[in-house]
Structure formats: C-alpha cells, structure tokens
Write a structure and sequence with these properties.
single chain, Alpha-Beta Plaits, five-stranded parallel beta sheet, 11 helices
C-alpha cells in the first residue's frame, strides 16, 4: 500500500456493494475489505485504516455491534466510521450517531456524494492529527514536549511495574545557557537549542525510548527496560556529542559550543513507588552534576 494515500476499510457482506464502492474509491485510496463483523474487527486493528465504511445488516454480527466494539477498543476507537445501509430509517440513523458514527449514507450509492463525504471526513482526520501532533510536539525543536513526556513516562512506568523491568531516566540541562543567551542573543540561543535537540534522536533509537524538551534548556530521556550500565553509556554518548557540536553564531563570526549536566536514575519500580519521586531524583542528580563542576553525569541506581 502507498504511504501517501489514505487507507479505507469497506465492510459489507454483499459482493456487489464491495465492488461498487471499490470502483468509486480505489482510484484515490488504498482499500481493505471485510465481509463480516469478526473479520472487520481483526482487520481494523491490524491495518489501522483512516476511515471505515460499515454496513448495518450482516449475517454474523450487526454493524451496530461492530461499531460498538470498534469504539470500545483502544486500538480502533479513534477511527472514524461512516455507516452505509440500504435501510432509510431515522431510528437506525440516530442509533448510529449515538454509538459514535460520524456519518450515515444510504444505498444505492451516488458516486459524487460518496466521494465528497469520504474526502470531507478524511480532511477532518488530517486536521485532527495535525492538532494532536502539535499539542504533543515542542514547536522550536520538533522533539516531544512535556505533555508527551508525561504521557509516555506514565505508560512506561506502569509497564515496568507490570513486567518487573528496570526503567532509566536522564535529565539533561545545558550548562550556563543564560550566559550564552546574554552573550549571543536569544536568536542564537534558539539555534543552540535546535542543535542540541538533534543529538537525541541519534543517540536514542529504540521505538519505546523517548527524548523530549521538557522546560527551557532542559531535556529528558526515557529508557525503558534499560539497566544502569547501558543508560550510562547512552548518557555519556549524549554528553560527548553535545560537547563536540560546534555551532557558528548567526553572523558567522564566532564558533560556539556548550556542555551539559546529566542526572541519571535507574529503578525497577514497584506498585507503591511514584513517578514524581523518580523524576525528582533524576532532576536532583542533574543539579548535583552542576554543583560538582558541570559537564558530567551523576546518577543513582535504586
């Protein structure tokens, strides 16, 4: 399937309806089809379509039951669903909307109306995703922001408790950032923050890892299922790479560099432990690193 085309799933037990909708939609969209409710639920979770067109009347499970299950699953609850039906019934339409459908179309299909409604709904999907991405992303650096960090930390904390696995956290703070801003100006300070931010994705690459800008010149790195020794190697790589990054000033007359202080904590959390205590220990270790002379890592294994 193409990466730049939206994916639509059509659920209908009649081959003729699948054929008609496929003919209308296939020139512009990638399609997934299902002919019964159970198959629809499995394929929706596996393929994560951008939109589902769902028939009401099917032999094994009604479209209403499928819709109810889609909306009760964390994996599929956000996928918009348009109900398609041959029954022009106000009660059915009301029920569909109450269960979470975003639109309701009756057969026989009008090509123009089907395409217009699908495109309208997909445009709303794109807008929602853009808003969601912006709310979780730091505007200056493009890294995840504090809100995204908090969400990810909560998820990985619970997983570490459940699986009894170590969780490591780095708090990384740019040394003497205020002095850097005073010397070179806020524009140059922003360029520095962007340059520092590029180091993290190169050093932290596993899908479950997360690096974020959490406050001003402060960054954080979450390392699930990572023991102290491995986390220390990652922290040292980040420290050395940032120190080696040479950044010209905006006017090109001066070449600058900075160092960072890093606090590191590794813990296999238990049910009664708290994220705030864990975070505060890492943050406190970062300030210890500053008091000890900056450009260093100080941490704890709990």
């Amino acid at each position: 399937m193409s990466d730049n085309r939206n994916r639509i799933m059509i659920v209908d037990d009649e081959n003729i309806n699948l054929a008609i909708l496929s003919q209308i939609l296939s020139p512009e969209f990638d399609l997934v089809t299902a002919m019964n409710g159970q198959d629809a639920l499995k394929r929706a979770e596996k393929n994560q379509p951008d939109l589902i067109l769902l028939d009401i009347v099917m032999p094994d499970m009604s479209g209403f039951d499928v819709l109810r299950k889609l909306k009760s699953s964390g994996a599929t609850k956000d996928i918009p669903v348009i109900i398609i039906t041959g029954r022009n019934n106000a009660d059915d339409e009301e029920k569909a909307f109450l269960l979470g459908a975003v639109d309701y179309m009756t057969k026989p299909f009008n090509n123009t109306i089907v395409m217009a409604r699908v495109k309208t709904r997909l445009q709303m999907v794109r807008q929602t995703r853009t808003i969601d991405r912006m709310s979780m992303e730091d505007a200056l650096t493009g890294l995840p922001n504090r809100h995204s960090f908090d969400n990810h930390m909560e998820m990985e904390w619970k997983r570490a408790i459940r699986e009894k696995k170590p969780l490591s956290l780095l708090i990384v703070d740019i040394d003497r950032f205020k002095a850097y801003n005073d010397a070179y100006g806020n524009i140059q300070g922003d360029e520095l923050l962007k340059a520092v931010a590029t180091v993290f994705p190169k050093s932290v690459r596993r899908p479950a890892d997360l690096s974020a800008r959490i406050n001003g010149e402060e960054f954080a790195v979450i390392l699930p299922d990572t023991a102290w020794e491995s986390a220390l190697l990652i922290a040292e790589n980040i420290r050395k790479t940032i120190k080696a990054t040479i950044l010209p000033t905006v006017d090109g007359k001066t070449h600058t560099f900075v160092t960072v202080s890093i606090g590191l904590v590794t813990k296999t959390p238990r049910v009664n432990d708290t994220i705030s205590d864990f975070f505060n220990l890492a943050d406190g270790s970062m300030y210890e690193a500053k008091r000890a002379g900056r450009d260093r890592i100080i941490g704890k294994v709990l």
